[in-house]
C-alpha cells in the first residue's frame, strides 16, 4: 500500500476519496457540485465536473481517470478523455470531463460517484533521436495488419 496524500478543497467539504470494495482498482471520485444545485448534463453535451479533491501522487506514478461502467451502461455517461491522465506533479483540483452520449438529460448530484481514479506506475523515458530504428517482424504493419 502506497500513501497518497490528498486534501479536500473548501467546496469538497464532507466528500471523500475511497475504494468501494476491498480489492477495487479505482478510487471513486465524487461530484463536488453544490448540494442545492445539481448539474444537468444535457443530451450529447459535456461538462468538466469538479471533485473538490487535490492529490499529491508519488513520483513515478500517474493516475488514470476512468469511467464507471454503471453510468456508461445505464445512462451513456462516460469520461470524454478516457483515460484522463493525472500527472504526479499536478496539485490542482481533480476534474472529470463527463460526456452524455444519450438522448436523455443526466442529473449529477453532490457526492455522486462519477468516475474512478486508478493509480499506476509510469515509465519516464529519455527520447533519443536516431537515424534508423531496429528491424522487427511486425515492421510498419498495424491497424489490423494481422487480420480480424
Ligand atoms: O481527466 C483529467 C485529466 C487531467 N486532469 C488534470 C491533471 C493533469 O495533470 C492535468 C493536465 O492534464 P493533461 O496533461 O491531460 O492535459 P493537457 O491538455 O496536456 O494540459 P497541460 O498542458 O496542463 O498538461 O490536468 C484532471 O484533473 N482530469
Ligand atoms: Mg499535458
Give structural notes.
By secondary structure, the protein is mainly beta. It has one domain: Deoxyuridine 5'-Triphosphate Nucleotidohydrolase, Chain A. Helices cover 5% and strands 34% of the residues. The chain has 1 helix and 12 strands. The protein has one helix spanning 69-75; strands spanning 6-8, 18-19, 27-30, 39-41, 46-50, 53-55, 61-66, 77-79, 84-86, 95-100, 106-108, 113-121. It has a 5-stranded antiparallel sheet, with no helix packed on it. Strand 2 and strand 3 (27-30) form a beta hairpin. The longest helix is centred in the middle third of the chain and has 7 residues, at 69-75. The relative contact order is 0.25. The model has no long low-confidence stretch (mean pLDDT 97). The protein binds deoxyuridine-5'-triphosphate and magnesium ion.
The tally of strands reads 12
How far apart, in Å, are the first and last alpha carbons?
A: 40 Å
Give the count of helical stretches.
Answer: 1
CATH architecture: Distorted Sandwich
Q: What is the alpha-carbon Rg in Å?
A: 19 Å
Mean pLDDT across all amino acids = 97
CATH superfamily: Deoxyuridine triphosphatase (dUTPase)
